[in-house]
Each structure stands twice: as structure tokens, then as C-alpha cells.
Amino acid sequence: MPPACPVCGQAYEPEPGFYWGAMYISFAFSTGIMLVVGLAVYYLLGDPDTWVYTSAVAIVALLFTPLSLRYSRTLMLYLFGGVRYDKRYATRQ
Q1: What is the pLDDT of residue 18?
Q2: Where are the domains of the chain?
Q3: What residue intervals traverse the membrane (predicted)?
Q4: Which of these, 20, 72, 90, 93, is most buried using a 10 Å CB contact count?
């Protein structure tokens, strides 16, 4: 991958704090997933043993980890990236 866009010169490497911010967004996603799974187990199975909660949350968290990581970075880019696409830029040069 080239270090910058050949058309507009935009650098592809994000700022140093980008991955820290994406980590916090991923943490929020994981917390939400764990709360939803915990409540679903409670209401569907009627207050089972602790190992059932732990197993269900661990399995679902592992299954959703790739999506959580990808969408946390995407959300970070859209909210705080500060780069807007302008398709007319290539024709102005």
C-alpha cells in the first residue's frame, strides 16, 4: 500500500491517538455485547449458574471480536477522522 494517495496526497497512516480511541470504542461495543448476552441468558434461561453466564458471554464475545475491531476503527474514522471525500478534486488538478 502506498504511504499516501496518489491523487490528493492524503496520508494513509492515522494519527497516533487513533488506535487508542478505537480501543475505547471497541471496549464500549464489547461491554454492550456482554450486557445484552447476560440479560438474554437471564431472561431466556431463568437465572442459571454462573458458569452459564461466563460461557455464553465468552463465546459471543469471541465470535463478535473481529466485527467489533473493524467497526470500532470505522466509527473512529467517521467521527474523528476529519477527512471528507470530494470527487471533484481529481478534476481540479
Answers
A1: 82
A2: 18-82
A3: 22-45, 51-69
A4: 72
